């Protein structure tokens, strides 16, 4: 029986570093039930409370996001909220600010913020409650739609994942706070792909492909401006095994080599 894909959101968090555009990457612990040992971006499945219509919101509306992702408004709201929540949970970065679309919150690293991040993780606190308690709004204008991948039907654990790009807010620092990762790095897309090709940084095909999409952009501004036109077309690869390796084959014929994490 084919598993129904779960809605999920992933965020390519970007900054301008000395070598050029850099993206924040997490290496998932090898004991994780999904993508253990793989390098990935912050993200995860939609939580039921991500659809809360009471959440403070500034920026493009759920209807606009629904058009970008080709889904209904409730799903769009859930996805944007999940993107913001997961980025805070896994990287300690909060894409929120003044409800009028003004200043973005500059620092979320204090003990009080950490207590609320932990409460989000345990689901004792919702994103809506966190933002309301601090007089903040989710800033959907800090995000851009970037890609849409669906796990193939042959997989027992499936996700319908929307990929976003976002700039690291001024004054905030991404931190390795996720209990799901054993390494966090800022890398240029080219450096990350070189490590993947060498077998030192295994990745799932969506990570490899989206890093390749980022490669042409010289800086964060260009990456945010270069988001693809709406709506995004979902990608669901097939798999192929040949004498020279195991490959994911995309609908356009692109082949991505599959690299399995080495045992510890």
Automatic annotation (TrEMBL):
Keywords from the named record: Hydrolase, Magnesium, Manganese, Metal-binding
Domain Nudix hydrolase, first and last residues per copy: 4-209
InterPro entries in the cross-refs: NUDIX_hydrolase-like_dom_sf, NUDIX_hydrolase_dom, NUDT19
Cofactor(s) listed: Mg(2+); Mn(2+)
GO MF annotations in UniProt: hydrolase activity, acting on acid anhydrides, in phosphorus-containing anhydrides; metal ion binding
Domain of life per record: Bacteria
Protein name in the entry: Nudix hydrolase domain-containing protein
Source organism per UniProt: Blastococcus haudaquaticus
